[in-house]
Structure formats: C-alpha cells, structure tokens
Design a protein that fits this description.
Layout: H1 9-16, H2 18-24, E1 33-37, H3 41-53, E2 58-63, H4 70-74, H5 86-95, E3 99-103, H6 113-119, E4 122-125, E5 131-132, E6 145-147, H7 148-155, E7 172-176, H8 180-190, H9 193-196, H10 203-210, E8 216-220, H11 232-239, E9 244-247, H12 250-253, H13 265-279, H14 283-291, E10 294-299, E11 302-310, E12 313-325, E13 333-344, E14 347-350, E15 354-355, E16 374-375, E17 378-379, E18 385-387, H15 390-393, H16 399-418, H17 430-439, H18 447-464, H19 474-482
Parallel strand pairs: 1-2, 1-4, 2-3, 4-18, 6-14, 7-8, 7-14, 8-10, 9-10
Antiparallel strand pairs: 5-15, 11-12, 12-13, 16-17
Helix pairs in contact: 3-5, 3-16, 7-8, 8-11, 11-13, 18-19
The protein binds flavin-adenine dinucleotide and NADP nicotinamide-adenine-dinucleotide phosphate (NAP).
C-alpha cells in the first residue's frame, strides 16, 4: 500500500507555483485559446511554455506546410542528425492533449490574422524567415547564381525547392558570405557521397551531388578573419573533411597570434583554430591535405560587385578589395577601395542571410530590420499579438537562442493573461477557424496525419539505407496524410 505524504495547500502552492492555483479554477468559458503561427523551434518552445505555465490553456499551432518543425527539418544539415533530436521534445508538446497541430494552413493567405484574433485570446507569430537577402548587383539573376537558402531547401526536400536548377557540372564554386549556412553549403558540396548517402539528404540532391564535378569552393567574406560569422565546431568539421584540403592564406592570419589573447573566449578559440590550421598544422593533417583531391579556400576583404556570365553560363565574380575601418578589433566596417579582383567559377551561392517577410497587411513590419517590431515579444501597439523566434529578432541565432526567446514570449503571454490584459471571452479557438477553413475546402493536416507521413518517409528511407526519404511534394504529403 502506498502512503501519500501529508501535504498542505501551502506546500502544493510552492510546488506548483502561484499561477497554477490562480488558473485551476478557470471556467470553461474563460479557457485561453492561444494560436501560434509557425511550427519551427520558436513555435514549439512558446507552446511548451504556455502549456506548462497554464493548466487549462489550449494551444493551436498553425503551419503553412503539411509537415512540422520548420528549419529543424528543412534547414539543419542532413549530416547533423544530433541537432534534430529536438524533434522529440516538440513531438511531446504536440501530443499534449491541450495542443493541436494544424498543418497546410498558410496564415495571411488561407486565413487572416484578423480572423485569428477573433478566435483566439492571443496570437503568437513565429513564422521565421522565409526569404533571403540579396546583393543587388549585376548578374545576380543569372542561371547558376543560387540562393544558399534555396540550395539548403533543395538538399533537405523542401517542396518549393525540389526542382532547383543547380548545375554541378563545374569545378570552381564561389560562396558569398562567411556564416554557418555558407559552411553548410560548402560541406555538402565537398563531403564524399559515401557519407551523405547514409543521411536523410533528399535522393534528388544525392543523385545530382554524385555526378558533381566540384573540386574547389571559395568561401568569400567582405571583412577579415576576426569578423567571420561561422563558429568553431563548423570550422573544425571543415578541416576534417575527408579528401579535402583547407586553404587559408598566411598573409591573412600570420599576425593574429598577437591579438588572440585579447579576444572574448568563443572568438579566441575560433581564431586560434584559423591560425593553427594555416600556420601550425599537425603532421597528420599536412600529410592528408597534401593528398586531397578537393579543397576549400577562405578569401577575405572582398565584396562582390558583378557576376559575370557568357552565353547563359556563370564565368566568375568580380569583387572589390575592401579596407577595414574602425578602432574596435572586431567591429570593423568594410569599405571598398578602387582595386578589384576576379575569381573564376561556374556556380555562385549567395549566403548573406535569411529575411523575414510581412504575411498580412494588418501586421506592423520593420522592413529595414526585417522583423515584426516588438517589445519582449509583445507586438508594438497590437494588444493580443505576440511574436517569437527569427521573425521577432532577425535571422540570427541557433536553436538554443530561439528556445530562450520562445520561453520568454510564452511567459509574457502568461503574464498578460494573469494581469487580465488579454481575455478569453467569446474566443472559441480552432472551432471558429476550422469553420472558415472548411468553408474554403482546405485540407487540414493533424499531428496524427503527420505520423503517417513520418512513417511513410522512414519506410521509403529504409530502401536506400537512410534514416528517412522526405516526401518533397505537397500533394503527395496530403495524399499520405489522408490515407
Ligand atoms: P523556423 O524554423 O523557420 O520556423 C518557422 C515556421 O513557420 C516554418 O515551419 C514555416 O513553414 C512556418 N511558416 C512560415 N510562414 C507561415 C505562414 N504564413 N503561416 C503558417 N506558417 C508559416 N541551429 C542550430 O542550433 N543548429 C544547427 O545545426 C542549425 N542549422 C541551421 C541551418 C540552416 C540552413 C539555418 C538557416 C539555420 C540553422 N540553425 C541551426 C538555426 C535554427 O534553424 C533557427 O534558430 C530556428 O529554426 C529559428 O526558428 P523559428 O521557429 O523562428 O523559424
Ligand atoms: P550569418 O551568420 O548572419 O552570416 C551572414 C554572412 O553574410 C556574414 O559573413 C556577413 O558578413 C555576410 N554578408 C551579409 N551581408 C553581406 C553583403 N551585403 N555582402 C557580403 N557579405 C554579406 O547568417 P547565416 O549564415 O545565414 O546563418 C543564420 C543563423 O543560423 C546564424 O546565427 C547561424 O549561426 C545559424 N546557423 C547555425 C548552424 C549551426 O549551428 N551549425 C548552421 C547554419 C546556420 P558581415 O559579418 O560582414 O555582415
């Protein structure tokens, strides 16, 4: 027989928190209905916080695609499966009885934010950054000048990018930008097929990559080695790529040893790795690199000014040689000189950052910063509207940062509920929006439907010895969901 410990209500209150008690008496009429737009990390972490902090709140997650998880599915590189483990946490949230996933609903197109506000106590915009920054230079629209975002979508089975016209029948590639996305692109181009074929990379990409002639990838930054945006783990991975040699020029890094000690820790370790890779490689690495058949090269202080093409084919990039200005060691500005340089290549990737877009005319939007203007997640001058993740901060930060932001926005929603700033009177949540969507004949995808797609993808992957083969066609996803 179990003996329940005697526990008084004061102890219970301490254990469960003040707000749990306050909400425990919530009548069904006042049940808060929260709508989250977007099922990436920001959406799921915000949902998790609200469900945890309020015992009665109901959370609906609306997603434009028939499948969940945003960039964890369509961004994170296929050879980084450990990063995708967050999907287990998201799945636990989605299976909470008070959470409803509704996929294949594009907010701003299938349903307006005004309609959502009529149905929900709070609406949290967590729809990420679905576009990318452009360079606005001559030749940028030429064939084989490819946005890194689209290329990532292509190898990750994002439906809109599955037919990306990327021609890998070239030896030299230039990647413009020196962030982690640039390194993801370079790594996928240079990793042996025998490694990639064991990942969940899309089969169409694997087929194209196995015919690729790419031998050399330039990764070009407008500033210097102290300003690179990629991080140490990703750089180290590049130095360990089989059959591939790093090329870092001595004149770019030879003086870095004098400043390394003055750098903040993450930047110091990263800079040390750049320095050692060039100046003090181990005997093993030197031997391996001397035999490699492929290479990647870091180029600094170069800004693209024109992409050259001949007869519809890219022939190279013209770049301005920059000078760095500013007293601070790291925060320097690139200023173009009159000197130029040319790099021959047959393929160019623009990897200079993602960009959020406004999805509904009633949304305030800061087009310069590319964010929904907000204070701690509350959308400015729009009570009941909140935002979280990349659409609230701009397209920077890893999943951990997005998680912290998602939890913060969740807490703000809970606080506004507690303070009575938002109320639930007359809000019926998905009951109301389903009426609208059904009247439009919209097929909505539930989380159990996703389970079917998931199962089918795993089954298809097993044929190739892969963890999954993603379905990259929306109508096929919907067919499997309905089966
Ligand atoms: P997203 O993940 O983009 O989610 C937004 C969701 O909203 C998407 O599902 C989208 O389909 C949906 N949506 C968009 N518009 C609408 C609409 N109108 N209606 C309904 N839904 C909509 N971080 C790491 O920690 N490790 C990594 O290895 C890593 N790799 C990355 C690789 C790439 C290529 C990129 C770009 C980022 C990577 N990151 C990584 C960063 C990480 O992906 C982001 O921090 C995180 O995904 C941002 O979350 P989010 O929810 O704001 O946006
Ligand atoms: P990013 O980290 O912001 O890097 C963008 C790069 O583009 C920078 O080198 C930037 O240089 C350059 N750039 C911007 N505008 C330019 C211009 N007009 N001309 C030339 N260069 C320009 O963006 P990202 O690589 O897209 O990554 C987005 C976020 O996702 C980052 O936080 C990243 O860490 C994260 N991510 C993480 C992983 C991972 O953890 N493995 C993988 C992928 C992405 P300046 O510095 O000079 O502006």
């Amino acid at each position: 027989m179990y003996i329940l410990p005697r526990i008084c209500s004061r102890h219970l209150r301490q254990l469960l928190g003040k707000s749990f008690f306050r909400y425990a008496s919530t009548s069904s009429q006042d049940v808060p209905h929260v709508c989250i737009v977007g099922s990436g990390p920001a959406g799921f972490y915000t949902a998790q916080q609200i469900l945890k902090g309020h015992p009665a709140a109901r959370v609906d997650i609306l997603e434009k695609l028939p499948v969940p998880f945003g960039l964890v599915r369509f961004g994170v590189a296929p050879d980084h499966p450990e990063v995708k483990n967050v999907i287990h946490t998201f799945t636990t949230t989605a299976r909470n009885q008070r959470c409803t996933f509704i996929g294949n609903v594009e907010v701003g197109k299938d349903i307006s934010i005004e309609d959502l506000q009529k149905a929900y106590t709070a609406v949290v915009l967590a729809y990420g950054a679905d576009d990318d920054r452009t360079l606005a230079i001559k030749g940028e629209d030429s064939p084989n000048v490819i946005s890194a975002r689209s290329f990532v979508g292509w190898f990750n089975g994002l439906p809109q990018d599955k037919d990306l016209p990327v021609d890998l029948d070239v030896e030299n590639v230039v990647i413009l930008g020196q962030g982690n996305v640039a390194l993801d692109v370079a790594r996928i181009l240079l990793t042996p097929i025998s490694i990639l074929q064991k990942t969940d990379i899309s089969q169409h990409a694997l087929d194209a990559l196995s015919r690729s002639r790419v031998k050399k990838v330039y990764i070009v930054g407008r500033r210097g080695p102290l300003q690179v945006a990629f991080t140490i783990k990703e750089l180290r991975e590049m130095t360990k790529l089989p059959d591939c040699r790093p090329v870092i020029h001595k004149e770019d890094v030879e003086n870095l040893d004098k400043v390394i000690k003055d750098l903040p820790r993450p930047r110091r370790r990263l800079t040390e790795l750049l320095y050692k890779t060039c100046m003090e490689p181990s005997d093993t690495d030197t031997h391996l690199w001397s035999q490699a058949s492929k290479e990647w090269e870091l180029r600094f202080r170069l800004s693209p000014i024109e992409i050259n093409e001949r007869e519809g084919k890219v022939t190279g990039v013209k770049l301005a040689v920059n000078q760095l200005q500013g007293d601070d060691l790291i925060n320097k500005k690139a200023v173009a000189t009159s000197e130029t340089e040319h790099i021959d290549c047959g393929l160019v990737f623009r990897s200079i950052g993602y960009k959020s877009i406004p999805i509904d005319p009633i949304l305030p939007f800061d087009t310069r910063k590319g964010i929904i203007p907000n204070i701690k997640g509350r959308v400015k001058e729009k009570p009941g509207l909140y935002c979280s993740g990349w659409v609230s901060t701009g397209p920077v930060g890893v999943i951990l940062n997005t998680m912290t932001g998602g939890f913060e926005t969740g807490k703000i929603v809970l606080k506004d509920l507690e303070d009575g700033i938002i109320t639930s009177e007359g809000k019926r949540g998905n009951e109301m929006i389903k009426e609208i969507l059904e009247s439009k004949g919209k097929q909505m995808v539930t989380f159990s439907d996703w389970d079917k797609i998931d199962e089918e993808e795993i089954k298809r992957g097993s044929v190739f010895g892969k963890p999954r083969e993603k379905i990259a066609d929306i109508s096929e996803m919907l067919r499997v969901a309905k089966s």
